[in-house]
Amino acid sequence: MPKQSPIKGLPATKSLPIIPPIVPEADPNVPVPPPARPVRGKGAATTVPPAAPTTATATSSKAYGKKKAKTIVQEDTIPHIAPNTAPESSIAPALRSVNAKISLVNKRIDELEAVRLADIAARLHKVEEDDVVILADRLDIVETSNEGFGERLSKLEKASESMWTRMNDMQANVSRIDSTVNKMKDEVGLALDTANWARTTADEIQDSVDHAKEDISSIYPAVQSLEALNGEMSELRGRVDFLSGSVNAVRGSITNISKVSGSAPVAPSFPTTTHSPPNPHYLANPSPPSALPVRTPQLRPSRDLPYRAAREARAATGPPAYQADQPAIVLYGPHSNLSHDGNHHAAVIEILIAYNSTAFGRASIQSTRSVACDHYSIKFHNRRSAEAFVACVAHNPPVPGAIAHISNN
After folding, report:
1. Any residues with CB less than 8 A from the CB of 57 and at least 6 apart, and which?
2. Cα separation, 58 vs 71, whole angstroms
3. Is the peptide bond before 334 cis (omega within 30 degrees of 0)?
4. Cα separation of 61 and 65, whole Å?
């Protein structure tokens, strides 16, 4: 594989050929002088010192302006000349021959140096031209790149400006988000406070409901006793009516007897009462007090107690006008353990199905809720079904003591 030149794009130059040293040939016509003999008393014989070896070198010029290279052209070693012991006339031809050869060698060296320098100069010139062309092309590319770089730089500056603008907007958005988060935290805190207050209020309401249930449980026996007292009062009124009728009958009998006998008997003194006149039913069919009907008290909420004034006003105005297809609410009870799982609606539906009536059924009621201990409010879709259910309960109650009546509210 050929070596690469230190200059990009040029092949490596070949090294100069080494010129072999020139060895002078011995002249047969020149006699070889004998070795010199020292002379007594006059010191050592004089000799010609050997010539220093000469070395021809060629230095190449700068490659691409900065690199230097040295190429060894040749290294001639001039042979040592034997000591000049012969007479001057005998070595003169040899010296001339040697000088002539040395001149030839120097001339050859100059020629080789001139050729080599010319070759190197031509190559350098070519390299310079090629480098100039390459440099010009590269400069054009660099200038073009600089123009594109300027455009890209301007675009980059615009992009950086827009990026800074977006960053500023983002910081503003982050600030707004932080403020919103802080407001939301405040609202969450207020909501938590409200929830705690609502929880406390719910606990208080639950306590109030528990107290109300306890109050209702304590009031319910009083209501029952009041209903029983009302029944006893009704029974006493019936007895008073019966006694009044008996007194009137006795008075009539005494009047008839006095008319027949002609004497006016003294009328017996009976205590006067402020009750209403005797019932004609009891006058026509007198019966002992033990045979009087006992009224069953109806359990109603405290707001629906059968006060006398309300009954008289209701009797004077007649029954309220209503439409048969309007919803009606029936108050039913007492019925303990109506449902084992707390589903009162399903239990009431079972009672309706058990009656097997055509006036009401499974789809006749809308809702059922507990209003007091073992007492329930049943909402029917229409009043006809409610009245039929009340009549069925009055004729055949599901449990002993259970009654039902339509609420007027």
Report:
1. 70, 71, 72, 73
2. 6
3. yes
4. 9
Which alpha helices (H) appear in 262-301, and where do they start and end? 280-284
CA distance 302 to 270: 39
What SS3 class is residue 163? helix
DSSP state of 72: E
Neighbours of 372 (CB within 10 A): 19
> Residue 400 maps to which CATH number?
3.30.70.330
Which residue segment(s) compose the domain that 385 sits in? 324-409
Does an H or E element contain 331, and which? strand 328-333
Burial of 297 (0-12, 13-18, 19+ CB in 10 A): buried
**How is residue 35 written in tokens?**
């070795």
pLDDT in tens, 351-374: 999 998 888 988 899 999 988 888
| Cα–Cα–Cα angle for 114, 116, 121, rounded to 5 degrees | 90
Q: Would you say residue 155 lies in a domain?
A: no
Gap between the Cα atoms of 275 and 206, Å rounded: 48
DSSP per-residue codes, 194-239: HHHHHHHHHHHHHHHHHHHHHHHHHHHHHHHHHHHHHHHHHHHHHH
Q: Which residues of the chain have pLDDT under 50?
A: 1, 5-7, 10, 12-17, 19, 23, 39, 41-77, 263-307, 321
Longest dimension (CA), the chain: 238
Q: How many domains would you assign to the chain?
A: 1
**Model pLDDT, residue 229:** 77
- Structural element, H or E, at residue 160: helix 88-261
Strands 375-380 and 70-75, how do they pair? unpaired
